[in-house]
């Protein structure tokens, strides 16, 4: 049996098996964006458009809120 017909099937199988390792879904971080026109600030995950620049570092919580800190107390 020639090798050529098996190659596309093997390549497809390899892609299907490795796809979960390549795809990492995570929510986009939130940023404050500042208008270059009037200095107004807006909280959004992506730029509101041209005329806006990023005005803060990334927030992991929704709506530009810091992520909640959870204390884990070990049991004795």
Q: Could you write a compact summary of the structure shown?
A:
The protein is α+β, with helices and mostly antiparallel strands and 76 residues long. The chain has one helix spanning 6-22, and strands at 31-35, 41-44, 52-54. 22% of the residues lie in helices and 16% in strands.
The coarse silhouette is flat
Give me the side-by-side strand order of the main sheet: 2-1-3
Average pLDDT taken over every residue: 83
Succession of helices and strands? HEEE
Which percent range fits the helix content?
10-25%
Number of strands: 3
Beta-strand residue percentage: 15-25%
Distance between the termini: 65 Å
Question: What Rg is obtained from the alpha carbons, in whole angstroms?
Answer: 23 Å
- Which residues form runs of ≥5 with pLDDT under 50? none
- Biggest sheet architecture: 3 strands, antiparallel
Structural class: alpha+beta
Number of helices: 1
């Amino acid at each position: 049996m020639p090798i050529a017909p098996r190659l596309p099937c093997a390549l497809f199988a390899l892609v299907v098996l490795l796809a979960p390792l390549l795809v990492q879904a995570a929510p986009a971080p939130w940023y404050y964006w500042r208008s270059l026109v009037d200095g107004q600030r807006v909280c959004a995950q992506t730029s509101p458009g041209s005329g806006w620049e990023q005005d803060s570092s990334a927030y992991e919580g929704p709506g530009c809120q810091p992520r909640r800190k959870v204390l884990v107390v070990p049991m004795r």
